């Protein structure tokens, strides 16, 4: 029975979510599988990958063939490197300690890259939020300036109207004074 490590699609339309499974190569994409090895969610940034490292390594070492996408995911998580190093140990090119040391160094470097990516994503979000806030403040300042300008025009019109009324009142009083004389 040829064993494949592949992705099994779940999730709703336009929101994919995958299980990483070990399945018979003859079974359907979303059909029967032998073992669930992990999950893969490409909609998050960076993509969420949770994997049962030991079981996946066991299947790969026993000859399971990953599909192209599954191979990339396994390489990203270090399973393909671990398989390569274990092959060197089996052949006698490396000792188990040397292989473990190389793998640990690679994992530390990989974690640093992942943390840098997550930090850059967070920084980009914070920058976008700050930029949006600055634009909103500028918009509000323009609105306030426009409102103040309109208020000043209303006050000037009211003052002009009051001045006209006062002038008319003075003229009326002057005419009445002339009539009385």
Task: Give a short overview.
The protein has 181 residues and is of the alpha+beta class.
Key terms:
4 helices, about 180 residues, rod-shaped, S16 Ribosomal Protein, Chain: A, 5 strands, five-stranded mixed sheet, alpha+beta, about 65% helix
Helix and strand arrangement:
Layout: E1 3-12, E2 15-24, E3 35-41, E4 48-51, H1 53-61, E5 65-66, H2 68-77, H3 79-91, H4 96-180
Parallel strand pairs: 1-5
Antiparallel strand pairs: 1-2, 2-3, 3-4
Helix pairs in contact: 1-3, 3-4
Strand order of the largest sheet: 4-3-2-1-5
Low-confidence stretches at least 5 residues in length (pLDDT < 50)? none
Here the CATH topology of the domain at 3-94 equals S16 Ribosomal Protein, Chain: A
CATH architecture of the domain at 3-94: 2-Layer Sandwich
Return the structural class.
alpha+beta
- Report the CATH superfamily of the domain at 3-94: Ribosomal protein S16
Order of helices and strands: EEEEHEHHH
Shape: rod-shaped
Largest sheet: 5 strands, mixed
Percent strand equals: 15-25%
Helix share bin = 55-70%
Radius of gyration using CA atoms only: 37 Å
- So what's the CATH class of the domain at 3-94? Alpha Beta
Descriptive notes:
With 181 residues, the chain is of the alpha+beta class. The protein has a domain at 3-94: Ribosomal protein S16 (S16 Ribosomal Protein, Chain: A). Helices cover 65% and strands 18% of the residues. It has 4 helices and 5 strands. It has helices at residues 53-61, 68-77, 79-91, 96-180, and strands spanning 3-12, 15-24, 35-41, 48-51, 65-66. Strands 4-3-2-1-5 form a 5-stranded mixed beta sheet. Helix 3 (79-91) packs antiparallel against helix 4. It is rod-shaped, with a radius of gyration of 37 Å. The mean pLDDT is 90.
